[in-house]
């Protein structure tokens, strides 16, 4: 059970569904996944979380504006 760090390059007005590894099964303990979404120049990303289940004090989802986690952290 695991995941690979990946980059998703989006086109203008493209939408996609994004799931955790091994969905709909539970993901493994101590799993760290990084996905970078790249929008076209002069575009932005819109993120909608339809269903999310996180284990308190253990799981998290973080968003950053930049090319990696050193970018500006976006509070959700």
UniProtKB/TrEMBL annotation:
Species of the source: Pristionchus fissidentatus
Protein origin, superkingdom: Eukaryota
Domain CUB stretches: 12-68
Keyword set, alphabetical order: Disulfide bond
Matching InterPro entries: CUB_dom, Sperma_CUB_dom_sf
Gene3D superfamilies named in the record: Spermadhesin, CUB domain
Protein name, entry field: CUB domain-containing protein
């Amino acid at each position: 059970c695991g995941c690979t760090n990946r980059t998703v390059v989006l086109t203008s007005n493209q939408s996609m569904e994004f799931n955790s590894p091994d969905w709909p099964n539970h993901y493994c303990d101590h799993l760290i996944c990084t996905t970078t979404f790249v929008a076209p120049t002069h575009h932005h990303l819109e993120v909608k979380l339809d269903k999310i289940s996180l284990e308190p004090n253990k799981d998290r989802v973080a968003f950053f504006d930049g090319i990696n986690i050193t970018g500006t952290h976006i509070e959700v």
